[in-house]
């Protein structure tokens, strides 16, 4: 039978959407805020702020422990948020969703837990890429030094794209894990993670995807990708800080030992021996970020109102517009020109340090990021100390991009005089 029920989605309209984000009404240095640092963190819609306030005002209690009304209510809301994440990324089961502090903790969880098993043996290899955020480099270095394993790095070309043929050449019978960023926070490159996973799986190697940036720019389906682990942060997808997700396939999560010990993750404890809860609670020791989980659930509800394709198309139109406008500025060079890009643009301007760019345009109320963006190996690859980076979300507008470009022209005039 053909299912004729279609869900009615809210039509995307940027002016209407901007009204949902109260911070966008504020002034900075006497000028309307132009927030172009969405790769660092996204702004929060009123519904997320309300969910947090409501929880602390009416429903606050510790979860999983109390038999009283409020504790059960808080537990139900927190577990409901887990279900929302499960649906959002199309995991098979809610038990594959581990709540953590963010992408950084998710990757550290996998690294530390696997380090305590016999999974890695001396001489084994982990493959990452040249465009990883420090949080997908340093956790592996920490275990490399404890387990005597090797880190191998997939090179990137001058456009900031992973070289797939080079990736396959790095694989040996000692390769035990591939850990790759989905969208680079510095270059904006959208990596072909589905192909990478397919290649790795053909050698029976599991793959962890750092989805910190991808979650807000793409529709993620972990089953379609066939990712073994997928990590992301709530605050980069319109939710609160201090909450994030590690998705893991059941077969891996069950094999992995707990990352931290404490309350809520145990079945029985004696001084001789402790037995652990099943997944996901095995990995969630102590009182979690209950409000954060509920807030992340509200962020997912917010996004689910829309047809995500409309948001993605709109962001792509901002990327194209901003790229063209920036290229009008003499001496400006974009770092990261991959064919497949999300709305993140890193750039340098000849003769002007990115810090000066950021500081001067801040006086116009424009927020961009400057520095190495926690990707020092990318800076080294392109032989530059830092970039300025503008990153756009679906609540940004072409008018904001125009203001940004005018402000950059002012920076150039200041330095010319
Ligand atoms: N990975 C990427 C690609 C990122 O952009 C970031 C943050 O900027 C992280 C990981 C770390 O995220 P968090 O600081 O939320 O743990």
Topology:
Elements lengths: L13 H6 L7 E2 L2 E2 L1 E2 L10 H14 L9 H21 L7 E4 L2 H13 L9 E5 L8 H10 L2 E5 L9 H7 L4 E7 L11 H10 L4 E4 L3 H4 L4 H4 L3 E5 L10 E5 L1 H6 L10 E4 L4 E3 L13 H15 L3 H20 L4 E4 L8 E6 L4 H9 L3 E2 L1 E3 L4 H7 L4 E5 L6 H19 L1
Parallel strand pairs: 3-15, 5-6, 5-7, 7-8, 8-9
Antiparallel strand pairs: 1-2, 4-10, 9-10, 11-12, 13-14, 14-17, 16-17
Helix pairs in contact: 2-11, 3-11, 4-5, 12-15, 13-15
The protein binds pyridoxal-5'-phosphate (PLP).
Pyridoxal-5'-phosphate (PLP) binds next to helix 4.
The helicity comes to: 25-40%
What radius of gyration results from the CA coordinates?
Answer: 22 Å
Tell me the number of helical segments per DSSP (H or I, 4 or more residues long). Answer: 15
> What is the CATH H-level superfamily of the largest domain?
Type I PLP-dependent aspartate aminotransferase-like (Major domain)
Class by alpha and beta content: alpha/beta
Weakly predicted, low-confidence segments: none
Bound molecules: pyridoxal-5'-phosphate
CATH names the topology of the largest domain as Aspartate Aminotransferase, domain 2
Mean pLDDT: 96
Q: Tell me the strand percentage band.
A: 15-25%
| Total domains | 2
Q: What is the CATH architecture annotation of the largest domain?
A: 3-Layer(aba) Sandwich
CATH class of the largest domain: Alpha Beta
Tell the overall outline: globular
Largest sheet, if any? 7 strands, mixed
Distance between the termini: 72 Å
Strand order of the largest sheet: 4-10-9-8-7-5-6
Tally of DSSP β-strands: 17
């Amino acid at each position: 039978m053909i299912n004729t029920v279609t869900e009615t989605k809210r039509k995307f309209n940027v002016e209407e959407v901007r009204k949902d984000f109260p911070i966008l009404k504020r002034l900075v240095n006497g000028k309307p805020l132009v927030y172009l640092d969405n790769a660092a963190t996204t702004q929060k819609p009123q519904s997320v702020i309300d969910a947090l306030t409501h929880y602390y005002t009416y429903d606050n209690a510790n979860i999983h422990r109390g038999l009283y009304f409020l504790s059960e209510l808080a537990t139900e809301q927190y577990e409901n948020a887990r279900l929302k994440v499960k649906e959002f990324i199309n995991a098979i089961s809610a038990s594959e969703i581990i709540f953590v502090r963010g992408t950084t903790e998710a990757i550290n969880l996998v690294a530390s837990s696997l380090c305590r098993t016999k999974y890695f043996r001396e001489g084994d290899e982990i493959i990452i890429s040249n465009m990883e955020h420090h949080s997908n480099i340093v956790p592996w270095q920490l275990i490399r030094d404890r387990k005597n394993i090797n880190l191998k790095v997939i090179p990137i070309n001058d456009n900031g794209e992973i070289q797939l043929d080079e990736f396959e050449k790095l694989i040996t019978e000692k390769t035990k894990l591939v850990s790759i960023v989905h969208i680079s926070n510095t270059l904006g490159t959208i990596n072909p993670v589905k192909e990478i996973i397919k290649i790795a799986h053909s050698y029976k190697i599991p793959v962890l995807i750092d989805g910190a940036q991808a979650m807000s720019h793409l529709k993620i389906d972990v089953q379609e990708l066939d990712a073994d682990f997928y990590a992301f942060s709530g605050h980069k997808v319109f939710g609160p800080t201090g909450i994030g997700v590690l998705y893991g396939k059941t077969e891996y999560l069950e094999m992995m030992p707990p990352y931290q010990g404490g309350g809520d993750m145990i079945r029985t404890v004696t001084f001789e021996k402790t037995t652990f809860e099943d997944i996901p609670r095995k990995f969630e020791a102590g009182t979690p970020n209950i409000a954060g989980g509920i807030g992340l659930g509200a962020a997912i509800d917010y996004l689910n109102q829309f047809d995500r394709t409309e948001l993605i198309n709109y962001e792509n139109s901002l990327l194209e517009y901003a790229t063209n406008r920036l290229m009008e500025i003499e001496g400006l060079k974009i770092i990261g020109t991959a064919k497949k890009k999300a709305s993140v643009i890193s750039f340098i301007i000849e003769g002007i340090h990115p810090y000066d760019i950021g500081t001067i345009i801040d006086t116009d109320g424009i927020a961009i990021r400057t520095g190495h963006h926690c990707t020092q190996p990318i800076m080294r690859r392109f032989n530059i100390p830092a970039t300025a980076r503008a990153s756009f979300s679906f609540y940004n507008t072409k008018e904001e991009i125009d203001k940004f470009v005018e402000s950059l022209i002012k920076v150039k005039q200041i330095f010319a005089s």
